[in-house]
Amino acid sequence: MSNFNYVYSLSEENYIKAIYHLSNHGQESVNTNAIAIEMNTTPASVSDMIRKLSKKKVVDYQKYRGVHISEKGKEIALKIIRKHRLWEVFLVEKLNFHWDEVHDIAEQLEHIKSPLLISKLDEFLGFPKHDPHGDPIPDENGVFSTVKKEPLSNIEAGQSCKVITVNDSSSAFLKYLDKVGISIGTTLRIDDHNEFDGSVDITINQNKSTTVSPAAAQNILVTPL
Fold first, then answer.
1. What is the pLDDT along the chain (225 residues), one digit of tens a residue?
2. Which long-range contacts (CB under 8 A, 24 or more apart) does 138-143 make?
3. Rounded to whole angstroms, how far apart are CA atoms 51 and 30?
4. CA–CA distance, 42 with 28 (Å, rounded to integer)
5. How far is CA 45 from the centre of its chain?
6. For residue 87, which of 54, 57, 120, 61 has the smallest C-alpha distance?
7. 37 Cβ contact list (under 8 Å, min separation 6)
8. CA distance 149 to 116
9. Closest CA to 204 of 179, 181, 224, 222
10. Pairwise CA distance, residues 82 & 118, whole Å
11. Interior angle at CA 111, CA 36 and CA 184, nearest 5
């Protein structure tokens, strides 16, 4: 494909993926400070990388308007994301890793270049649509299904909902969800919103009552039932 005349380094791929996520899937421009925070580096280092990516037509940078990812950049980002999420499925389903253990490993595996390997991996896994954290897996054309979702904190008391995905895929948060008994597909009923601290009282799968913190309620993404 003409979009892949260049070979991208591991560092370049990480920047492309980060800009794609920060730009709300390419819909918004991103400032260099936000990229520096996301990549845990300096604005000067970001500027150097943006110049490299601009030459490769992956991003467009205009002073005072920020960084805008190109269609070419979005295609590259989606291929990286596809690989990452397929590897997460493989690690959980075939190697029995837990969902809180796979992100960092998939970060390494997502840079494998072979399209044939990824195509065969997808087939081997049965063409999964979502990764273990509930995030959609793009197909080989970059197309993926979307489901309307919102933070648990937005759901009114008395309503029920289903957990679709999580905003925070850190090991600490996923272990917390395991501890309280929440996973992808879990049904929750909102019993009350506590005005004092913003915590939310819920019933899990119609049989276990608990309270989740405001931070947890913001990071659990659900669809109303």
1. 344 456 789 999 999 999 999 998 888 999 999 999 999 999 999 999 999 999 999 999 887 788 999 999 999 999 999 999 999 999 999 999 999 999 999 999 999 999 999 999 999 999 999 999 999 999 999 998 888 899 999 999 999 999 999 999 899 999 999 999 999 999 999 999 999 999 999 999 988 999 999 999 999 999 999
2. 138/78, 138/79, 138/81, 138/82, 138/85, 139/82, 140/82, 140/115, 142/74, 142/75, 142/78, 142/79, 142/82
3. 15
4. 22
5. 24
6. 120
7. none
8. 33
9. 181
10. 9
11. 80
For the record, the structure tokens of 125 come out as 């896994």
Q: Token pair of 175, please?
A: 């272990």
For 6, the token pair is: 């260049």
Location of structure tokens 């989740």: 212
